[in-house]
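the two lines:
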Amino acid sequence: MAENMSVVINVNGAGRAVSVEPRKTLADAIREDLGLTGTHLGCEHGVCGACTILLDGEVVRSCLMLAVQADGAEITTIEGIADGDDLHPMQSAFSEYHGLQCGFCTPGMILAGIDVVSRNPDPSPQEIREEMGGNICRCTGYQKIVESVQAAAAVMSAEGGSA
Amino acid sequence: MTTTQENRWIGVSAPRREDAPLIRGRGRYIADIEPAGTVHMAILRSPYAHARINGIDTAAAEAMDGVHCVLTAADLEGIGDFPTIWRLPGQKECTTPAFAPGKARYVGEPVAAVVADSRYLAEDALDLLDVDYEILDHVVDVEAALADGAPVINEDMGDNTIIEYTFPGINALGVAGDVDGAFEEADEIISGRFKVGRYSGVALETRGHVAEWDDLRQTLTLHSGSQVASLLRTELAAALGIPETSVRILTPNIGGAFGNQWDRYPEDILVSLASMKLCRPVKWIEDRREALQATVHGREQLQEWQLAANSDGTVLGLKGRVLSDQGAHLHSVGIGPAWVTGAAAVNQYKIANYHCDVVGVATNKTPNSTFRGFGGPEAMFGIERMMDKTARRLGIDPAELRRRNMIQADEFPYFSPGGAVYDSGNYPAALEKALEAVEYDKVREEQQSLRDQGVYRGIGISSYIHVSGFGPSAILGILDYYTGGYEGSTVKIDPHGRATLYTGMIPMGQGTETTLAQVAADHLEIDIANVRVVWGDTDQTPYTGFGSAGSRSNVAAVAVIKAIEEIKAKAVRIGAGLLEADPDDVAYADGRISVKGAEEMRSLSLADVAQQAYWAHKLPEGDQPTLEATYVYDPANFTTACGTHVAVVDVDIDTGKIEWVKYVVVDDAGTIINPLLVEGQIHGALSNGLGGAMLEEFVYDEETGQLLSSTLMDYLVPSFTDLPDFEIHHLVTPSPHTEGGFKGMGEAGCFPAAGALANAVTDALSHLGVEADQTPVTPSRLWSLIDQAGG
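prediction for all of em together
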């Protein structure tokens, strides 16, 4: 077994150092070493999007990266998007528009939704469907997720692009 | 406490109380649970479809650093199998063992398990296990499995026929049809052969458990995503040979269940056994390949139907044979889904003469068991395709053919020759509403002109019934289904007048916590914020005979209502004493206990009465202190949800791709508790139904017996761009025999989906004579059909 390596990651605005096996995925390190279990694992082969995080501003699947590859990076997980008790508009919209049922895909969906709106402040339903095609939901049939993202986009635009 | 109008909660889209942690990433799913000292289990699964296990050398794995133990079949002494709880007459005995019993019967059957410091290490150790497999001939096709000389998968059964069950076409009143007479008399006989593809729930969260054995107290705590914790507790204790009183099942958030989590699985035993052996917490989380190989599959059937009709469109009779590909062995519910197919196949139509043979067949595949819809979608696919074939043969519009054969609104209760008693509905009204919403006549007209332009548009109608709310326990007894059909509820009012509701139901995404709180708040006429719902702990919650399912809220809700009726009656008795009035002159309304006609003057709040009930200084004679009640509700009948879906699609004849034009739903689930959540359930069930209609399929290689679709790159679940926007309309025909009029609705959306899609595709290609009789109707499958038809 290879020796552990030390990795420093800025997680949700705070610097954290962890010691991990080189083979450990970023997703496992986020969950096990950083204790942030809001990042979920649905497939561990990069298809479902449940483990979606933002890494240096880009939307990535944390199951397809090794933790050691994230050394020096800034990551945002679902735990890092609310401002204290104030929910991010994307979080509020998912609840208001019933964009979640079991909630397992939800952290990844919310982060993917934020990413979509950050690039396209006024996405059409079709654009949302195409842009978010990398995230799978088994419960909702997607329609209410599309409505949630659209509603959040309107709020985010009104707030001056808080993404 | 607020006023009456503000405290009517049934019919309101109350916000989900489940959401707050889930949108913050603070849900607590199985994989998030890790008690101090937890070690991790990984499972070695058979790489072969059929192979004798002559020995397993575990020495190298056991010697590896970080490995705590290795389990094989040799460790199962004294450990029982899980039973098949639906045991129909003539069904061969079949159980679910923890490890492959001497030979592996499907790719993915558990062979050994390793427990190590981490999951990474446990998987490393799996590579060190040396299994001596003797590969046997396999069979993965249901007809091949029935042929002479086929490899016998379970030797003690003698052959691969597990059961042959006949529906003789006798209704619940004992009236028998005359199917042979109907076929002799009929002007036309229409035949169909349908392959319903193998697919399943494929929840985004895979299965998992954390088992904690306390050797000093001799108790086992199992954190589990089972949707039927009571039954798991009963069966797990029996399998492990420990008292049921020693077992506690705790259920955290569940990341989707879809029926698959209703079953008991080998890993339930293995993780518990490992914890008992090591006296420390053991965690097992399924990976995705395991989930696709070893969580139960659903649906797969080969159906052959014959329908007898007169030239005026009257359907006289239906007879059929359903081969159910059960996989290697029966799982928890046996051939239950296929039985339901036989029971439901006459659907909404007055077909008095009916006969169906259902055959459960073993193949070298993953067991086929509980999955959202449970045989109903399969039945609807067959009959709705048959209705369209009949319409085409007779030259009658498919909507008109259905209209002419539907059970009418004044014909309930309707005694179906499948055996069920339909409680209520208005099938023609649902059909007309759906046709109106989709603008049927207009779409039909456009279809013609579009075809001239090379656009192949099709319209597919599919009506459905969903016999839900399983079920009266006595009926389950008649069906040899060895569990009860009841739901229990305990409601406790605290001394401040707030309510805590204990339910055996388990929320798994459908919003049960919210809807049951709505029912309780509505009937107590108090603010919903003052109702807490406790679930997911077998030490606290009532035993549930049937467990949670998307279509169980209707039964559980009645248990809540009945318990609250007892509480209100007691509150009136106590309140009458305090108000110095005759109990007959006192009533419960607006969350208050008041003297009738003097509500302004002589009235107590629920909190006033509850406080007295806890002080118990002066209770009415015969009343016990405190204010709580438990009611176990056993339904009087099933409820029959129903409706009609219409799909409109365009088919690209060069690629076989299906493009959505419109999808209209009219559903009737009786009284609706929460409209927003009902919409969510319809969307979700439809996505399950359309997934299996268009994309999802467990594909087995005939030559090797391997499961080819064992990643999410190969097993295609619908994505954002595969599904349309759904247009939903409701009819409300309250169930006449349940308190509140609720019907089960969480599954109904998947019932008509495949029929609507396949009928639409067939309609689009009618000029070629292409018939979409096999699901999923993938682009490649459809392209081949178009190609063969010369299109």
